[in-house]
Structures are given as C-alpha cells and as structure tokens.
What we know:
The protein is 32% helix and 25% strand. The chain is an alpha+beta fold. The chain has a four-stranded antiparallel β-sheet, with helices on one face. It starts with a strand and ends in a 24-residue tail after the last strand.
Amino acid sequence: MMVLITYDVSTEELDGKRRLRKVAKVCQNKGQRVQNSVFECLVDPVQLAELRKKLEEIIDPKKDSLRYYFLGNNWKRRVEHVGAKATYDPEGVLMV
C-alpha cells in the first residue's frame, strides 16, 4: 500500500534539529522524498507498523506532528504530479 507521510518537527531548540534529522532518515529508509517534509512509502502492513513505531518514538508529540495519508493499493490513480522534479515509479526497476 502507498502511504504518504508528512511531518512538522519544531527546530527552535537543538534537540528539535536532531529529531528532524532522525525522522527524515527513517523516512528515507522506507520511501521517496517528494517534498521537504513529505515522503511516499510503498509498504506492507507490517512495515507500516514498524515505521510508525520508529517515527512516533522519535518525535515529541507536544511540539511535533506526523500525518499519515493512506492511499492504498490503487494509489496510481490518486496521485498526479505537475511541475519541476520529475516523478518516479516506486514499483519500477531500481538502478544502482
């Protein structure tokens, strides 16, 4: 299933900057950054549960927020891209 994850981490303090880097790194390990604080993650239910657990252990819920948008398995019909930065196919061939 495709899940769009967005986050807002308060960086007013040094600890917030650390949390921001950690959240970004966890998201990068499971998905593709499509905007500064927005990731598309193609995951199964177990991977999603693990991802949520990791992210929610990092943030400070009094200062930060996470949003999960569940686009499901038919996500391709629900996503349109316009403008700069060419889109990608997360189900396509990965070239390393």
